[in-house]
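Suppose a colleague, Dr. K., hands you the sequence of a protein chain of 184 amino acids and asks what its three-dimensional shape might be. Before reaching for any lab equipment, you can write down a predicted structure in token form. Begin with the sequence itself:
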Amino acid sequence: MKHIGTKKIETERLILKKFQLNYAKQMFENYCSREKVTEFLTWYPHKSVNDTIDYLNYILPAYKDKSTYRWAIIWKENNEVIGCIDVINHNDHNLRAELGWVLSDDYWGKGIMPEAAKEVIKYLFDVGYVRIEAIHDVKNPKSGRVMEKVGMKHEGVLRKYNTDKTGELQDCDMWAIINPHKEF
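The predicted structure, expressed as tokens, is then:
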């Protein structure tokens, strides 16, 4: 495992790069404040841009750690921050990383998250991870569709696995992809 930290990734339509404090307003307006976007997430919508600033002040110092992988998703067409994709959990001993993501509902259904996730998965395989996994609330099958589009396989339902924003345990679908180029 050779950690390199969050580096800029560019796709046809997207720029993925480190968050900056000046992204707060766009983040708040485009996704952090939206009930629809956060419906199945573990956090409530932000009530003000100050909540988003507080969040950024909390996460930005983590970039000093080369094992932090957290990208803002920027739509090239208008240079707006429209979401994020992060390694939300990792186990280096077992060469495993878990992805999480969120995207503005204005951009749902356009193939944006699969485009971002495919590149991030390649990046993480290059770092040395063998298994990339993701979960979603069973009541949110659209998230599973993204996981399927990036080549992940459904591995089953984890019962009462993850707490939602109200603190209630939810059943989650587990998906994963194994690095096809890694010799075992």
